[in-house]
Design a protein that fits this description.
Largest sheet: 6 strands, mixed
Number of helices: 13
Number of domains: 2
Oligomer: single chain
CATH architecture of the largest domain: 3-Layer(aba) Sandwich
Amino acid sequence: MRGVDRLPRVSIVRTPTPLEDAPRLAAALGVRRVLVKREDLTDLALGGNKVRKLEFLFGEALAQHADTIVTTASAHSNFLRIVSAGARRFGMRPILVVRGRPDLPSEGNLLLMRLFAERIVYLDTEDPYADTTTAKMRDLERELTRAGRRPYLIHLAAFSSGLATVAYVPAAEELAAQLRERGAGCDRVVVAVGSGGTYAGLLLGLRGAGVTAPILGASVNTGAGEMRRRIRDQIRAAEDLLGVTPSVRDDEIDVTDAHVGPGYGIPTAESLDAVALAARTEGLLLDPVYTGKAWAALVHAVRTGAVQRSETVVFMHTGGAPNTFVHSAEISGALPAAP
């Protein structure tokens, strides 16, 4: 898409990520074809969709001569694992503002964050949009600046959302090219939705590439109405950065919150079933709080007829492997009984 090449960018992702047939998953789901876009294979620190976003966020940070990254998310965030590792790769020091308690056990993503980070500041909130989070980041910015450092702040749910959305425009173009190369149609794309940037960038990029398939987003943390509004705003911010004419209608944003379950980061029976199914059919590792919930949303859509059994579905595997270890007890309890 016009405008992407004007933005500062670093190279991290080994592209293209694979687009793999999953015939046993398709048979279990009851649709004609399932193609899995392996965004979990983006290489950096166990991979995931957030690595693509760092190409542009770090591009801007380095263009501003930053030496420190200050960012925020939850205690078991895939993004914080990846951004702290990426900062180290580019010679910057990561400081993390974490929603959670300092006495949480070192496991999964939190273990890796503690390994990579220079410092972790904990906040007693679960709200990803809390004003206290942004205020703490600004306090750290002032403290670091006074100490002679050059901080760059990243907040995916707030002021960094436009640039993070831009990152998935070339990813969408990559997917469109892979579909053309193999002569495969695409009737539906399915993706887990956390901050909303991946969904927003995919929708913008696919429409720019001439792919009209609807995208089903499964929110893992936020009500559908609020998430649709945030995705709309992210698309508009990305269009402004790219200097392109708006090309996405508001009614094209399809997000469900029916599979959030008890809350963010908490598995559901359906997401645990998804983890077991993907493992037993394709040797594919989903996690129970992001991709597992996206698969559960797809299963529900097929059962209710919202997705037709004749469709070819592209499932975006956005990563999250470390979260399987955080929820080992729940996953073990959901495994099918041995014959």
